[in-house]
Protein 1
Amino acid sequence: MFNKFLRENKIASYILTVLRLYLGYSWFTAGLGKLTSGGFDASGFLKGAIANPVKGPDGAVVFGWYVDFLKHIALPNVDVFNVIVPWGETLIGLGLILGCLTTAAMFFGLVMNFTFFLAGTVSHNPRDIFLGFIILTAGYNAGRIGLDRWVVPFFRKMRNKNAGPEKTKATV
């Protein structure tokens, strides 16, 4: 019932727009701040996450696989992450603010939220993850008051056009 409300109700689309704009502004300003600060460097964050991993009540490292990822993949390739993080945050924010490819933007926003969370950064991540899942669950309705109103039907039309006669609704 709640899922149907999120995905189909017009009032929900207005509420989702407010949530989307809030999260979009948060993502956009975080990314733009990194892009315009004269050089973003994730190496300090990565080294801190490796040196102080998330530990359970018994003192054991909880996400050892993630620490290994940071140590062996992210840190040696920090130059790639120095580009991906600020541009990713900026584009996620732009997608949410404009309501363009909202579901994809929110999916990648949640991926980034979880990566920060796994690294031990709590901050506002739980709230953003909660709101992000609401937007992701709503699907198209979250971007209905935005560019998705035109972009999603265009992509659906192109998909059906390129599917060929054997894949169209008329023959199914």
Note: Residues 28 and 93 are 4 Å apart (CA to CA).
Protein 2
Amino acid sequence: MRLLPREEKFFHYFVEQARLIAQASQVLRQAAEKGPSALREAEVAIARLEQKGDEIIHEIFTRLNQTFITPLDPEDIHSLGSHMDDVLDGIEDSVHRLVAYKIDPIPQAMIEVCRVIEGCALMLEKAFEALNAEKPLLDHCIEINRLEDTADHIVRAAIADLFDKEKDPFSLIKQKEIYEFLEMTTDYCEDVADALQNVIVKNG
């Protein structure tokens, strides 16, 4: 059963937003792998994607306010939009700190978390495409939950290693904050997955 009628644009906007998230996560991961020299250009590219995402979220909320009867609960549409906005913001915040704090070289654990973020983003893209095509999407949500747990383990180990080996307190503080922003971004992805699962339960 199609949860939103074809004349509505909500699914179209959600898929667009998911694709922007996937693009931003790819830019972040590629820049992290290439090193500090690639991060400033990545920061600019991600800021542009985040701005496009803001425009999409604004359109979703505007359309939501103008639609008298919505096939999905309005709070579910709002929740999905808000959580997706958080993901893009998290990616932008992370790359901004990598640039501002002049992290060089990029620790391998940070690169690994960036890869996890990209994995989460690709699952989000597949989940919203599946929703739009009336196909099952629960497996994608479960994979996001698994990836978020992976990120937790990487970040906890990396921060413990920082406190054990890093002698410069300023470097420790900067790296710890970046790890926390990266990990928070995977939490935001999980929030979207949880909101999607809530939609499935309500409309299954």
Note: The chain is about 85% helix and 0% strand.
Protein 3
Amino acid sequence: MDLLKRRIIEDGTELGTEVVKVDSFLNHQLDIGLFMAIGKEISRRFGHLGINKILTIESSGIGIAAITALYFDLVPVVFAKKTQPNTMTEDFYGAEVKSFTKGTVSVARVSKQYLNPEDRVLIIDDFLAHGEAAMGLCSLVEQAGGTVCSIAAVIEKEFQGGSKKLRDAGYYVDSLAVITAIKDGQITFKD
């Protein structure tokens, strides 16, 4: 997706050789016009799969997932919570996930009432690095007996191996912008 690549180059900041900071448009300040283009592109790539639910993890995936739902006939968006609030009194599905950028491990939780065996789920991940969050979300869907139809990553850092890990586990992954390297302040994309 050329628009997204252009924004990464123009407005992203490289922090070393493994981190790209995109706070100005993706996960601190949200560019809604860009999100609409992202949602439309995700719909173009996955609209034929009979998706009836979108799943993401808090917090930066929520905005993208919500706007993407507009292009999937307003299917429900569910997001996994990383901490158990005192309002989550019902049973939940849980899976450990490690955050690459934060260096923390948490349990992603979704109330059992929001994932079901008849669900055909599109997982949306804002950043795919090592694949921990996406693997955890796949586990939640499978615990519920649902079907993971696909994983849509907005930005993938291919060199960190997350997409390979997911594909090796049998999941279909498609990323809108695939970064192959970050070196000397330059970001290289897969064509």
Note: The longest helix spans residues 32-46.
Protein 4
Amino acid sequence: MPKITFINLPEEKKQTLIAAMKKEFSRVPLYGASISNIVKSANIPRGSFYQYFEDKEDAFFFLLNDLVIHIRNNFIVLLKKYDGDLFPTMIEFYQLIIMEEEDVHFFKNAFLNMTYKIELSFSKIFRGQEHSGSLSDFLSFLNMNNLNISNQKELFHLLQIVFTITLRNVVEKFAKDLSNQEALANYKMEMNLLKSGLIRKDS
């Protein structure tokens, strides 16, 4: 988490530093990033960086978690758009991720250099800031009538499966440099396979 000195920065200086951090973490993965490059780009003394963040990992996860919140908000909007239907929501949601342009290189470096901590940050899209095993408020928007589940525990594991499939497809898209069209076709196929085993026969 950023220090209070960063939070209290004037907005212009804050955005300048954020832009410098995004630039560096878009250039290389976290392990290869250089604080020297960040402070040079932001035109601040190196010591100032440590007044704002503990280290480069702290800065990276500040950016990542901020983007995850933005993505999660988009997910909720889509869930409402499709009246809580999980599967069309996930298809459009996946499209939004792979067609993201502004932060595409940041995402690519994060996905292709996945650690448990990075994966945990992305999982907050589906479970918010709550502790592991609990479900987010957005589930009140989810239509469970056509899902072959009987309780919230099964729902939690269903979301874990959907998250895993989505995450793996995003990684594959970047790792194999697939076109958006090819990546989307692969994802749709896997989601349809999952859907055919989860939808009730009488729905």
Note: Residues 173 and 179 are 7 Å apart (CA to CA).
